Structure formats: structure tokens, C-alpha cells
Amino acid sequence: MNNEAWFGKHRAYRRETRRRPQLEVLEDRLLLSASFGEIEPNNRKGQATSFSFPEDGIVQLSGTSLSKSDKDFFVFTAAATGTVDVQVSYDGAPAKLKVENSLGVKVFETEPNDGNNGGTMNVVAGQTYFLRLRSQQPTSSAYLVDLVFSGGGGGGGGG
Prior knowledge:
By secondary structure, this protein is mainly beta. The chain contains 1 helix and 11 strands, in the order αβββββββββββ.
């Protein structure tokens, strides 16, 4: 059989098996909008790693507290009043999160030894907030903190 005869015979077959594009609906997913890792030294509020919430209000913080005495500070200033949903996860020793405003008033705290690793806190526009993470044991804790701001027009500018 020559090439022309073979192609002529199979051309009709290829036309019959053409497929039309199909659309597949995927579930809604939140994409990680902004991620900030600790920058050493950050053992005091004055050395805190500054972050800000992007327009979609989603932030993830990461780092490692080497021991109970290693404190990791982050800071942001709320651009709008609203709430921030907080979830802390860790690998190794439990990691505890404490949040204070610029006046030193505690506004949120987790209790990982009691199974409390998240919750919701209120923030006020223009107020600065310090987040402190540290291991609850003498061993290290690698942590991730997921923050989702709900309010008007983004959660905050840099601290």
C-alpha cells in the first residue's frame, strides 16, 4: 500500500475521533497571597520582622524558635478595622503565639499545650500589633502562622 492510499483510508478515522474541548469545574481554592519568614535577629519588639496584609488579606508567617528562650517577633499596623483569623501549626515542639498591641495589651494568645492553636482577634485601624512566637519546650519548633484578615480594603501596612 502506498502512502497516499494509507492516508486516504485513515483520514476519515481521524475526523471521527476528534474531541471537543471540555471544561472541568474545580473547587474554590484560596491561594497563598503573601508569605513572610522570620529575619534574625528578631528576639525583641524593636527587631521584629515587619509584614503587611495584601489586598486579599491572606498572609503566612514562618520561622523556627530554637528553644523556650528564643522569641521570634513579627509586627504589622492595621490599615483597617476588622478581624484576623489565626491558625498556628508547628513541627517539633509546640509553638505558642502571643499578640500584643503597641501599648503592651494582650489581644490574642494560643495555648498549644491545651490544643488551642487558633482563633480570631479584632484589630483596629492605625493600631500596631506585635506577634511573638516561641517554642513551649527546650527543643526547637518550626512554625507556620496562617492569618486571614476580614474587614475593609486590606488588613494592614508595614510596621
